[in-house]
Amino acid sequence: MRTILGHHHISMIIKDAAATNKFYKEVLGLRRVKISVNQDDPSMYHLFYGDLTGSPGTELTFFEMPAVGRTHRGTNAITRIGLLVPSADSLMYWKERFESLDVKHGSITEYASREALPFEDPDGLRLVLVNKKDDTVPRFWQPWENAAIDKEHRILGMGTVEITVRDINSTKKTLKEIFEYNEAGPAEHGIILRAGKGKIYSEILLKEESGSAERPGKGSVHHLAIRAKDVEELHMWDKKIKQKGFVSTGVIDRHYFHSLYFRDANRIMFEIATDGPGFTVDSSIENLGSKLDLPPFLEDKRQEIMDKLKPIE
User: Fold this and answer.
1) What CATH number should be reported for the domain holding residue 160?
2) N or C: which end of the chain has fewer CB within 10 A?
């Protein structure tokens, strides 16, 4: 049986790689697992943060666009990212940490039927820490042991991802009919969907909202990637997507994984990405994220690419 295994990664637009790097490493305590470039436009950084090895489901990735303007919030967009923490005590720990570091945040509240703490990064990206409580997470997730965060409160990986659309039924239909997501319950102004075995690390909070579509800028989400086991499965998903009338990029080799992209009827960008080979394909675990790594087809342009990039640290 082929099934979506959960979230793979999520990719955002940022204005300043150095500020983003400082926030996600020093404030959130995530590991920078890869410094690379946008393979379609090597003039911009592509940064990856996650657990010890950047395991699928833990990856937050960022494209630096120094000239980008602000985001004009609206519908037909991925509007919030949930990050899982171990307990209710963890939410208190993070609230106190955010207060001490002057991070914009709200009060501990309820989100998707769980205790949660909303906050924003330096670009205004909307995130929320979610108490995983009794939910299980993948066994292969490995928290970054060198993080300056108390061990019992470290961020584990991605949880609920919020998508806001004008026509909730069309996106729901796509997720259910192509990828076999199941409804896990109602939510304010929407529904909760889960893939595969119905775990929180595959959860999408789908909300309906009328109005103008979001105009992306700094702090906006470019796409959500969901997990496929391998390239064989990826070709199967590609076939199903096209059979439903959507335009797919076809399978692309991204060196660290293979993937494809398509937009649904609400213009939400989805990527389907394979678990492997992973970020250790060109780096040891110890050296992950310590230098600029490039896919083989860009290696002969390394110096040219480096000359155009501003140092992060």
Assistant:
1) 3.10.180.10
2) N
Q: Which of 91, 157, 78 is nearest to 119 (CA)?
A: 91
Asked if the structure places residue 154 within a domain, the reply is yes
Please check whether residue 269 lies inside any domain of the structure: yes
Rounded to whole angstroms, the Cα distance separating 302 from 293 reads: 9
Q: Domain range for residue 197?
A: 7-308
Q: Answer whether residue 2 is part of any domain.
A: no
- C-alpha of 299 from chain center: 26
The band of 1, judged by pLDDT with boundaries at 50, 70 and 90, is low
E-strand spans in 196-268? 204-208, 221-228, 252-253, 257-263
Chain centroid, CA 146 distance in Å: 22
Side by side, which strands form the sheet with 269-277?
31-38, 41-50, 59-64, 7-14, 221-228, 269-277, 257-263, 252-253
Whole-number Å distance between alpha carbons of 297 and 39: 9
Q: How many residues does the chain have?
A: 313
How many whole angstroms separate alpha carbon 122 and alpha carbon 101?
12
Q: Establish if 241 belongs to a structural domain.
A: yes
Domain count, the chain: 1
The residues near 236 (Cβ < 8 Å, ≥ 6 apart) are: 2
Instruction: Find all residues with CB under 8 Å of 83, minimum gap 6, and list them.
Output: 28, 127, 128, 129, 130, 155, 156, 157, 158, 159
Alpha-helical (H) ranges within the chain are: 17-22, 88-101, 168-177, 231-243, 302-308
Residue 259 identity (one-letter amino acid): S
Q: pTM value?
A: 0.97
Average pLDDT, the chain: 96
**Distance between CA atoms of residues 81 and 130, nearest Å:** 10
